[in-house]
Write a structure and sequence with these properties.
With 63 residues, the chain is an all-alpha fold. The protein has a domain at 20-62. It contains two helices and no strands. It has helices at 4-17, 23-62. The protein is elongated, with a radius of gyration of 26 Å.
Length: 63
C-alpha cells in the first residue's frame, strides 16, 4: 500500500462492482432470520420445561 489515493480509488471501483440485494431479498432474509429465531426460542423453551420436569421428578424420588 504505497499510494493511499490509489487504494481509495480501487476500493471505490470495487464498491461499484458489488451486486447489492434488492429490497425484496432483504425483506425475505430478515423474515427468515426472525422466523428461525422464534422457532429456536420455542424449541429451547420446550426443552427447558421438559428438563425442569424431569429434574423435579428425579429430586422427588431421591428424597
Amino acid at each position: 500500500m504505497k499510494n493511499p489515493l490509489k487504494f481509495i480509488q480501487e476500493v471505490k471501483q470495487e464498491a461499484f462492482r458489488v451486486t447489492w440485494p434488492t429490497s425484496k431479498e432483504t425483506l425475505q432474509g430478515t423474515l427468515m432470520v426472525v422466523a428461525m429465531a422464534i422457532v429456536a426460542s420455542i424449541f429451547f423453551l420446550l426443552l427447558d420445561q421438559v428438563l425442569k420436569f424431569l429434574l423435579e421428578i428425579l429430586l422427588k424420588v431421591s428424597i
